[in-house]
Amino acid sequence: MPTTKAPTTVAPTTTLAVESVNVFGSETAEVGETEQYVCTFSPTGAAGQADVVWSVVNGTGKATISALGVLTPTNPGTITVKATVKGVEGSLAVTLIQSVESVTVEGPDTVELGSDANYTYTVVPSDSTIEEVVWSVVAGTGSATINSEEGKLSPVAAGTVTVRVSVDGILGTKPVQILTPVASVSVQGDQLVRMENNPTFTASILPADADYESVVWSVTNGTGSATISENGTLSPVTPGTVTVNASANGVKGSLEIELIVSVSGIVISGDTEVLPAQEYTYVATVSPDNAKYPQVTWAVVNGTGSATITSAGVLTGNLAGTVSVTATADGVTKSFEVTVLEDDSLLGTPRPTHLLATPENTIVLSGAWELQNELEGLTVNFARQVYDVSFTAEASKSSLGVQFRVPNNVDLSRMQYFAIKVTGSTLTEGVNPTVSVQLKDFDSGLLLYNDQQTEIEVINDNQWIVFSIANRYRLQTSNRDLRILLDPHFTASGNEGVLTIQKVVFFGNADPVASPQLLSGLKNAHWEDTGVTAEPAVDVIDGQNVDVVKVSATAAAVAGWKAIPSYVLEDISRVTTVSFKVKLLTTGLPSDPKLGVYLGETDLGNKTIARPAEGADPVYQTITITIPASLRNEANMWAVKYIQLKPNSGGNKAVEYYIYDFKLSGDANPVPVTVARSPLGGDDVPFTSAPSYVESSTQTLVAADGDVPAHRLWTPNAGVSLMKIQYGYTKSAANLSAREGMNGLHITIQGTAGLEVNVQQSWGDGWADESQRRFVLDGTVQHIYIQALTRTLITTGTSGTANWQLGATIPAGTEGASVKIFSIAFTAIMPIPEEIVNEEIPFSSFREATNIIVEVETVPTDAMTVAYHEDGHAIATVAVNHANNHLIAIATHDDLRYMNTLTIQAKGAIGTSMTIKLAYGNTFNMDVDYVHTFTSNNVETIVINIQDRDVLKVSKISLSLFFNLNEVDAPANFEILSAAFSGVVTE
Known about the structure:
Blueprint: E1 20-24, E2 28-30, E3 35-36, E4 38-42, E5 52-58, E6 62-65, E7 70-75, E8 77-85, E9 88-97, E10 102-106, E11 110-112, E12 117-118, E13 120-124, E14 133-139, E15 143-146, E16 152-157, E17 159-167, E18 170-179, E19 184-188, E20 192-194, E21 202-206, E22 216-221, E23 225-228, E24 234-238, E25 240-248, E26 251-260, E27 265-269, E28 273-274, E29 279-281, E30 283-287, E31 297-302, E32 306-309, E33 314-319, E34 321-329, E35 332-340, E36 362-365, E37 369-371, E38 378-383, E39 386-391, E40 402-405, E41 417-426, E42 434-441, E43 447-457, E44 463-468, E45 482-488, E46 497-507, E47 519-522, E48 532-541, E49 544-553, H1 555-559, E50 564-568, E51 575-584, E52 594-599, E53 602-608, E54 621-626, H2 634-639, E55 642-648, E56 655-666, E57 685-686, E58 693-695, E59 697-702, E60 711-716, E61 722-730, H3 733-739, E62 744-751, E63 756-761, H4 770-773, E64 774-776, E65 782-787, H5 792-795, E66 801-809, E67 819-827, E68 840-842, E69 847-848, E70 853-856, E71 859-862, E72 864-868, E73 874-878, E74 886-892, E75 901-907, ...
C-alpha cells in the first residue's frame, strides 16, 4: 500500500488561523484493500498533524477511515474522504470498486439453424464493478457468429460451438449444439390398402440431415378406421378413408388412404350350350357386395371350339367345341364351361385359291337381315336361326333388296373378303335364283364391293359365295356404316322364289390395304399446347364456298418451330407425295414465310409461301413434296402416325394461313417393300474411335484403376444446362458381317444421379423410340439398350461414318456433375414377350385439352367448360357440339408395358357418345380408338382390351376422351369418375 509522508512543520511562534485544507490519495480504492490518505493545510504553521481529524461521508459505497487517514472500503460505490483541521475541511471523492472473481454464461443449450439465441452472464460477486464485456464464439464441428457486445448468437453450420464471454478479462464459456431443424415430413406408402394387408408406411423427412428424436405415428379415422404401430405398420379395422400421420419435432405430414374390400368370389350364370353365330348374355355376380373393384372383365379361352365375348358379357360362338368363359374382377378369375354346338362353317367351302379361311382369320358376324325399303312382294322373316327372303316375280325386277348392317364394334381391319352362306329356289322348275351384291359404307358413300351387273346363281344347296373387299381402309374407321346389300335379281321377265340366308363372315390375313390412304384434318397437337391451332373456316374459291382449315401460329410457336399435325389413319407404305393448297392471311411480314413439312418427325423440307404483291389479294398456292425413296422404307412408311406442318415467318412473327385439300397420294399398286435381313444375334460390336465432338463440356480418357474400367470422363463446363458428346462408327467391308445381326445400341454409363440423357443419331430423334433413347442416370453403372427403328441403319453400308450424340440435361442447382462412358457398341436386342402383371395404374385428373370458342348467334361461346367434383373428378359440360371437345389425362408408370386392359367409369346422357383415344410420345395409337355410346344416365363402366400392347412400351401415356352430343340437346354433362390401366392375367 502506498504511503504519503506528512510534510515537516515548524512550530509557530505565533498563532495563525488555518485558511485551507487539501486531501491527497488514490481516487479509487478496492474493497478488501486499504488506502492511505494525507492532507495539507495553509498556512503550514497554523496547525500540526495532531490537529487533523479524518472522516468518511458514505454515498453509494461504504468505508471507514482511521485517525491516521487509513481508508478501509466495505461496499463498492462512491464516498467522500474528509480531513478537518481546526474547523476547516478538505475533501476528496473516492470510488470504491469490487473486482470480478468468476463468470457464468447462461442461455439455451441448443439452437436451430435459421434461429437466433440470446446469451447472458452472471458474475461473482454479484456486485462486482464491470468495465468491459466481450462476447465471442469458438467453432467446433459447427459454426456460428455472435454479436460481441450483446451476446446474440446466429448459427451458420450444424454441430457444436462454444459461446465465450470475457468480463474484465475473466472468461466464462458454454457449449452449444447447433441443430438442423425438420422442414417437412411426408408420408410414403400405398394410398389404396386392402383390408387383408398390413403395409408399413415410411416418413420422408427433409432435409435429410435434420435433427430429430423420433417419428411419431398416428391415424385419423374418416369413413374407415385403422390402427398403426410405432414403426408405421397399419392395421385396417373397417373399410373407408383414414389419414396416416407422421410427426417429427412437431412437424407433421399426412397421407389420406382408402381401405378397400377385395373381391373374394365370382359366380357366373348363363347358358352351357350355345349355337354358332348367336348372341348369349352371361352374368357375373361378385362378392362381397362392398368390394372396391367389382368391375368384371370377360374373356374366352378357346378349347376344342372357339367363341368371342364382349366387354358386356355377350358371347358369340364361332366354331363347334368347348370353350371356357372367364370373368375376372379385382384379380379374381372364375371359369364357366360352354359348349358351342355343331353347325355348318365356312371351312372347306369354295373360296379364292390363294387365301384360306381358318379359325384364326375368320369373324362370324351376328345381326339381322332387313328390307332396304318397303317393296310390295318382298318380305324377310326370321325363323330357325336363318332369314327367309321371299320375293314375287314383280319384286325380283326391282333393284331393291335386303340389307345386313355390319356391327361397328367388330375389328375388321385385317379382313380382305366377306362371304354369305345362302341357299335358294324359285317356283320355276330348273331355274335357280340369282342375286347381285354390294358392300357399301353409307358414311362415306364408298363401295367396298359392287356387282350389280353379274348375276350370281344361288343353288338349292348350302353354299358360300365369297367377295373380295376394295377400299379396305374404310374397315378401320370408327364412324363407318357398312351394309351388305343383296338383291334378288332377274331379267325383265322376273321370277318368284325364296332365299335362305344363314351366315355372314369376314376373313383375311392382314395384307397391306390396297388403296392410298387419306389423312385426318389438321388438328391441334395432342401432345402439348404448341401455340399452333387449327379451326374450321369457309373460304370462297372460284365463286364457291369451300371448307378450309385456318391455321394460326403465335410468334413464340413460330420461333420454336412448333407444329400442327394431320394424323395418318392407315398404313401409307404406298404413298409417294404430300400435297396441299395454302393461302397466306397475314400481311406486313418482312419476308416470305415458310412451312416446314414433316413425315412423322422427319423433315421433308421447308416450302416458301410467296407474299402477294403490294395491293394484291392473297391467292392459293399448291404445295407438293415428294417423299424421298430413302424414306420409303420399312420403318418410316409403316410406322408413321402423322404428318406435321411447322409454320415459320420472317422475323418470327405470328402468322395465319388457310389450308385445304391436304392429302397423301402415290402409286396404288406399288412393288411391296421387302427387307432381307440376317437373324438377330452375335457379340456386341464396340465403337473404337475417340469422341469426335463435344459441346459445352470436356472429355478425357481415364485409364483403368482397380475395379473401375477405362472410360471417358465427360464433364460439363461451368454454368451450362446441356452438354453433348459425339461418337462415330466408321463402316467398312471388314466389319459388315459383325454388324449384320445387330439392331440397336448398348451403352455402359455411370453419372451424376438426376441427369437426363437423350441419344440422337446425326442430331435427330427419329432413329429410336423416345422411351428407350431418353433415360435418367441414377449414379450407378447402367446398361442402356436402345433398339433402332430402322435396323438397316446399323446392318448396311461399307463406308462412311455413322454418328451418335449423347446430350445430357443438367438439373438446376446440380453442381459437380460428371459422366463416365465405359463403352458404346452395336448390339442385338432380342424380342421378349411382355408379361401381364396384376396391378392397376390410374390416370391423373382430367383437364380440358383445347379451349374451343365458337360463335352462337354472333356471340363468342365456350364450346365446352370443365368443373370438378368435390372428390376431384372432372365434369365436362358441352354447350356446342364440336369435334375437338375433349378431356385429356396422363398415366405415368414404368409398368405400363405390363397392362392389357383400360377401364373407364363415366356418366353421360342417353344417346351421347365418347371416343376414347390413347396417345404416346407424339403419336396417336389408332388401333385402340373406341367409341362408347351411353345407354343410360347412370355411371357406366367401359372395359377395353388393349390389342396392340406395343403402344404401352412407354413410361408415360395420355388418354383423350372426345365427346359427341349426336342428336341430344345441348348442354349435356359428361362426368369422368375414374380411368385406369390394369393387367388382367388369364391362365
